[in-house]
Design brief:
The chain is of the alpha+beta class. It has five helices and seven strands. It has a single domain, classed as Alpha-D-Glucose-1,6-Bisphosphate, Chain A, domain 4 (2-Layer Sandwich), CATH 3.30.530. A hairpin with a 2-residue loop joins strand 2 (33-40) and strand 3 (43-50). Helix 2 packs across helix 4 (125-150) and helix 4 (125-150) packs across helix 5 (162-198). The relative contact order is 0.18.
């Protein structure tokens, strides 16, 4: 099963990359994390409570970071098991600078392959993909909140939680929709101006 998508973080790539590999930040930002403990360099033991319909349950496993190329590339491997079955997979995150209106933005593109087994396999690929996409979206929304707090001149603790991160994710989706509409509206105007200039 393929998992892929993208997200835009309102922070520079270097800041975003540093947050993605920070143990304390991961502990705060990974949706449903009950426990995250470092086992070695770039390896963590995790227990997650997942609450998405038929995929709901507690999963225990390990997460490993590899192929780190700061601040542009990172691979994440996951191996977990729960009452409903197991999940194994690898995903590649690529970070690119995306400067608009003078703001520092990072576009994160992720793609990977996931294997599922046990009762999870009977849930259906679409349901599992939907749950995975929602969790990834909430994770990046929480990372963005951490980035904004880190850049604040006055240290401000970031509050996280299922509802708060869900609302952040929905807000980021709406922001992306408005930005794409603005770009589409600007293209005809640029083309019109270019054609008038050529006459």
């Amino acid at each position: 099963m393929k998992i892929e998508g993208s997200s835009t973080i309102q922070a520079a790539p270097a800041r975003t990359f540093a947050l993605l590999i920070d143990e304390d930040v991961l502990r705060r930002c990974v949706p449903g994390v009950r426990r995250l403990i470092r086992e070695g360099e770039d390896r963590f033991a995790v227990i997650l409570d997942v609450g998405f319909g038929s995929v709901e349950g507690t999963y225990e496993g390990r997460v490993a970071l590899s192929e780190k190329v700061p601040p542009s590339r990172l691979q994440i491997a996951v191996d977990g098991q729960g009452r409903l079955g197991f999940v194994r997979g690898k995903g590649l995150l690529q970070l690119e600078s995306d400067e608009k209106s003078g703001a520092h933005l990072t576009r994160i593109t992720y793609q990977g392959e996931v294997q599922i087994g046990g009762a999870l396999a009977s849930v259906g690929q679409r349901m599992v993909q939907g749950a995975a996409k929602a969790m990834v979206g909430q994770f990046f929304a929480a990372i963005e909140a951490e980035a904004k707090a880190a850049e604040s001149p006055v240290p401000v603790p970031v509050k996280h939680g299922p509802l708060r991160n869900l609302l952040r994710w929905l807000r980021s989706i709406l922001r992306g929709l408005f930005q794409r509409r603005a770009v589409r509206r600007a293209r005809p105007e640029r083309n019109r101006a270019a054609s008038q200039g050529g006459n």
